[in-house]
Amino acid sequence: MFAPSNPARVLANGCPRTIEYRPVRRSFGGGGSLITRHHSLPQRERVRAPRPAVALREGGFTLLELLIVVGIIALLMVLIAPAFTYIKGGTDVTSAAYTIKGVLDTARTYAKANNTYTWVGFYEENVANPASPNPDTPKVGRLVMSIVASNDGTEVYTCCPILSPAVDMDPGGTRLSQVGKLVKLENMHLRTFANGAGTGETFPIRPAIPGNLPDNAKIGDTSPPDSLRYFHYPASGAVAQYVFKKMIQFSPRGECRPQNDNYEMRTVIEVGFQPIHGTDVSTVDDNKDCAVQLTGFSGNTKIYQR
Predict the structure, then answer these.
(1) Dihedral (CA of 114, 151, 116, 190) sign
(2) Residue 60: inside a domain, yes or no?
(3) In this structure, are 113 and 82 located in the same domain?
(4) CA separation (Å) from 143 to 85, 189, 220?
(5) Quick check: is 293 in a domain?
(6) How far is Cα 257 from Cα 295, in angstroms, rounded to an integer?
(7) Is residue 66 in a domain?
(8) Which residue from 210, 212, 298 is spatially nearest to 253, judged by alpha carbons?
(9) Statement to judge: residues 102 and 231 lie in one domain
């Protein structure tokens, strides 16, 4: 039996070579002995050695495979796009609800901290026109809110009988001050909703607005009637950019009531709204209807969603 070949690597003139030891039988004086013959394979020859055919496709894809992957991705996008649209809509209305709640809380806190009266005004304009303010109709889609405070701690408008016609409570811009910045919510529409069905935690079974003419305590698209004493923005100027005729008033004790004039304190006041696309108003029974309620005596706020 021959001994197995024993390849080895050596350096020759700085170039690696492979040395193979192959046994060869030669005769000397009638006998046989094994000697080893050296075969050196240069590195260049080994590099040129044939490789398996599969190596030609390493790291690549065929055109058919790429087309299949692109088709699968396109199909998945078609299926999940409506879900993303719904999630975004839900997120928008939730954000708007917390923004409205924050505006109401700010007005109440300011009134108590400064022993004065504050008002939160609600105004809606046409969202299809990017300019704001704008006179376009229908006036829907962009909700604008403003907070003003009495400079002298009084109700400002009680100096004279509250009768028609409606007038600006501070036409000269000297008795009211702006509190914070103007707040705008795009693609949101004020809406007057029917009363809730109970005392639950969701929109359909939220607490009902008690008392006679409950819509007078709802800030929406059809309620309450315009206040006989309204205010304008900017509060410190005589020129009005916005006129706020729907409002909620907070007293120095944190109590609140709708409008200004002859409306009494309410146990519960509600701000109803819903997201819309452009100026296309959704049905009243929309799955993203929302209401922010606040108690008239303590001013506490709570959000109700479906």
Answers:
(1) negative
(2) no
(3) yes
(4) 22, 7, 11
(5) yes
(6) 9
(7) no
(8) 298
(9) yes
Task: Let me know whether 112 and 31 are in one domain.
Answer: no
Count of structural domains, the chain: 2
Q: Which residues are CB-neighbours of 253 under 8 A, at least 6 positions away? A: 112
Query: How far apart are the C-alpha atoms of 64 and 86, rounded to whole Å?
Result: 35
Same domain, 269 and 176: yes
Upstream peptide bond of 171 is cis (omega within 30 degrees of 0) = no
Can you read off the two tokens belonging to residue 134? 């704008």
- Say whether both 86 and 220 belong to one domain: yes
Q: Does 142 share its domain with 22?
A: no
CA distances (Å), origin 198, targets 150, 208, 302: 37, 6, 15
- What gap in Å lies between CA 147 and CA 145, rounded to an integer? 7
Asked if residue 107 lies in contact with residue 145, where contact means CB atoms within 8 angstroms, the answer is no
Its domain, for residue 178, covers 73-305
Tens of pLDDT along the chain (306 residues) come to 445 545 544 444 555 555 554 555 554 444 544 444 444 445 555 545 555 544 445 567 788 888 899 989 888 876 665 544 333 444 588 999 999 999 999 999 999 999 999 999 999 999 999 999 999 999 999 999 999 999 999 988 876 667 778 889 999 999 999 999 999 999 999 999 999 998 899 999 999 998 888 998 999 999 998 888 899 999 988 789 999 999 999 999 999 888 865 567 888 999 999 998 888 887 766 778 999 999 888 878 999 998
Same structural domain for residues 185 and 242? yes
CB atoms within 10 A of CB 114: 15
3-state secondary structure 74-96: HHHHHHHHHHHHHHHHHHHHHHH
CB of 133 closer than 8 Å to CB of 125: yes
- Residue 61 in any domain: the answer is no
